[in-house]
Specification:
The complex is a heterotrimer of chains A (100), B (309) and C (254). Chain A is an alpha+beta fold and 100 residues long. Helices cover 32% and strands 27% of the residues of chain A. Chain B is an alpha+beta fold. Chain B is globular. Classes of the chains: A alpha+beta (100), B alpha+beta (309), C alpha+beta (254). Strand 2 (16-21) of chain A pairs parallel with strand 1 (2-4) of chain C.
């Protein structure tokens, strides 16, 4: 299945609250629906905030994260890295794929 | 009337009869027990608290009694009950007073959800308020016991009761639990402090309790808002050192050390976020209490006012 | 997203406290892999979750709160003190070696034990009650690391950890201390512990991997399991009011 036919979005019912201190490479995410609290990397935080705004394909996410070069270097702005990040977020039920 | 003003016999008689209502921090605890060691240790370590002989409403109805089965005689045990329900397995009879302390911790941690409750010590001096969240074995209680014997006020050595509304900590000054080597350390560091009997072979090893300083109990109506969150770690021979700590990691650690962060849900998250926002977070390693006192006494004097409830 | 700044700048602290022992270096973040989104998760627990008395509960992460006393139902366990004081039952009941007797008292004086029973470790020559026990590796005692895969700060062997009461290195009340009792209880057939030796070891290894925060939780579980009452006596036989069932487990006499 080509990636352009799949979009990613926050898991159904997930309502997220974010807080982050300082310039460290981490932040705290609270899932209001599940009550789970996660310490996430800046990369994870950015992806969740992007997906909280609207569902996006992997390619769209690769384009979007170009705005954060301090977090996503040139080597990391690619489909493979994005897939790994999304798998990690899906594993803990924060996001889900949806067929366009 | 304070517990201290009552004779040991009278206290023992009341505890085994209709029970005593004890004002412990913001809670009223109704205690029934016919176990002499509990009565005696209570009289020693809770001497400054009020035990109103009138019947009243209690937050917790606690009883400590020996079981009626063969365990009454063979390897005698003690049961802890709350409102007639026995939530734990019994412990050996000689651990009756520690069981009261641990059981009361459990009661507060399980039911006092008007607070965000963190497993932490809280102390105050000149308006500076420090919160020590810590897992067992970190040296938190020893550090707390040491500092309150050098002018710091004890708000709590085990349970930080944090108001979700204004982040103030409600004091619940109770005997400070000490274990193993800490017992001897504290006897030397504070030879004038009052200590309860030493109890061996508990799940934590050898334990005792140090009475809360009288002034801490007198001022238990004075709430205070933390500005320092300090994660202590005892390391033999280590110099006393404060190292600034990630607030993100501190948030997660405090949430993990909280009894009811999950129960409070979004309110718990919001409260903890504001608390971490408001405070400076540090790791603190120390090897000698004398060095620790010096570091804490050099913390800047607060501009914040501590206020009565 | 709220991007909070640290409200208390190190510079202000330093100006106020020239003699302070506050180290101004910020803790550095170990950069996790770029493709790792989650560093850790604190899962929401059931409000009235059953206390983590079971090792399986610990392994599944289904624990309710950081309190130290939990409701335990069923089963039995002998304390670390029991196992330290009754080395003679180790070999027969668990297969683990406690070492052997080092010194006995003969006519009021301590004398080296020269021959010991390979099954119990008790002294055969001179035949007297053991006063000093040798739980070292040299005495053939089972090492902590051979069981748990980790070394213990309190000693090399299970017996040394159970015995350790040295100032500044007192094992009593520690996770390792309770873990030794837990694995011996689990291996001892007459003790209905509720967990196998492999499960005890797996739980310990999980706690080591997950860090300090889980040590206290597992300690509490082991402590509760070890303190449910010991069904065996000094000789490893069923205690008074217990009897051996068909599965060679000591059960209470009805």
């Amino acid at each position: 299945m080509r990636s352009t036919k799949i979009k990613y979005q926050l898991a159904s019912g997930a309502v997220l609250k974010f807080v982050s201190w300082g310039e460290e490479e981490a932040g705290v995410v609270y899932n209001v629906s599940s009550g789970d609290t996660h310490l996430v990397t800046k990369a994870g935080e950015i992806l969740l905030q992007l997906l909280q705004k609207k569902p996006q394909t992997i390619l769209q996410l690769v384009d979007e994260v170009a705005r954060f070069p301090e977090v996503f270097t040139d080597d990391e702005r690619n489909i493979e890295t994005m897939q790994e990040l999304l798998v990690g977020l899906k594993r803990i039920d924060l996001i889900e794929p949806t067929i366009i | 009337m304070n517990v201290a003003l009552e004779s040991a016999d009278s206290l023992k008689k009341r505890l085994s009869g209709s029970g005593c209502y004890l004002s412990i921090g913001p809670f009223v605890v109704h205690l029934n027990t016919s176990i002499p060691s509990v009565s005696e240790t209570l009289g020693l370590l809770y001497s400054e608290i009020s035990s109103d002989p009138k019947e009243g409403v209690a937050d917790f109805h606690i009883a400590l009694e020996r079981p009626s089965n063969h365990r009454r005689w063979l390897h005698p045990q003690v049961n802890f009950s709350l409102d007639g329900h026995v939530p734990f397995k019994p412990l050996p009879l000689e651990q009756a007073f520690p069981l009261f302390e641990w059981g009361l911790n459990w009661c507060v941690g399980s039911y006092a959800h008007q607070y965000l409750i963190v497993h932490a010590a809280v102390i105050e001096k000149n308006g500076s308020v420090a919160l020590f969240p810590a897992p067992p074995g970190s040296g938190k209680s020893t550090l707390c016991a040491g500092l309150v014997n050098r002018g710091w006020r004890l708000l709590s050595d085990e349970l930080a009761l944090i108001s979700p509304k204004d982040l103030r900590v409600t004091p619940i000054p109770r005997p400070v639990s000490l274990k193993n080597e800490s017992i001897e350390v504290m006897h030397k560091f504070a030879p004038d402090a009052v200590f309860g009997p030493i109890v061996h072979d508990t799940s934590k090893g050898t334990v005792t309790h140090m009475k809360a300083p009288d002034e801490s109990v007198e001022k238990q109506h004075i709430l205070a808002r933390p500005e320092w969150i300090i994660f202590p770690k005892y390391e033999a021979a280590a110099p006393a050192k404060l190292v600034q700590r990630s607030k993100n990691y501190s948030f997660m650690e405090i949430a993990e050390q909280s009894f009811n962060y999950n129960i409070l849900g979004l309110r718990g998250f919001d409260t903890l976020q504001r608390l971490v926002d408001d405070c400076s977070c540090y790791d603190f390693s120390y090897g000698r209490l004398e060095d620790a006192v010096e570091v804490f006494d050099s913390l800047p004097v607060s501009n914040k006012q501590v206020v009565s409830s | 997203m709220s991007d909070k700044k640290d409200l208390n700048q190190p510079e202000n602290m330093e100006n106020k406290n020239k003699n302070s022992s506050i180290d101004q270096s910020r803790r550095k973040f170990t950069k996790v892999g770029a493709a790792t989104p989650i560093i850790m998760t604190l899962a929401s627990q059931p409000v009235w979750g059953i206390g983590p008395c079971s090792i399986s509960g610990f392994m599944s992460g289904n624990l309710s709160d950081p309190q130290r006393i939990y409701d335990c139902t069923g089963g039995f366990g002998c304390t670390p003190g029991y196992w330290k004081n009754h080395p003679g039952v180790w070999k027969e009941l668990t297969g683990a070696s406690p070492g052997h007797c080092k010194q006995v008292k003969v006519k009021g004086s301590l004398t080296d034990c020269t021959v010991w029973d390979p099954n119990t470790g008790f002294c055969l020559s001179p035949a007297a009650k053991c006063e000093v026990w040798d739980g070292s590796t040299a005495a053939g005692a089972t090492t902590f690391s051979s069981i748990f895969g980790y070394t213990s700060a309190y000693g090399d062997t299970l017996m040394e950890v159970l015995q350790s009461q040295a100032p500044g290195n007192n094992a009593q009340g520690s996770l390792d201390w309770h873990a030794c009792a837990a694995v011996l209880n689990a291996l001892a057939e007459p003790v209905e512990y509720g967990a196998t030796g492999a499960e005890v070891v797996a739980a310990y290894q999980k706690a080591m991997e997950e860090g300090q925060g889980q040590h206290g939780t597992l300690h509490d579980i082991f402590a509760q399991l070890n303190e449910r009452g010991c069904p065996i006596d000094s000789f490893g036989r069923c205690e008074t009011h217990f009897t051996l069932n068909d599965e060679a487990v000591c059960i209470p006499v009805e």
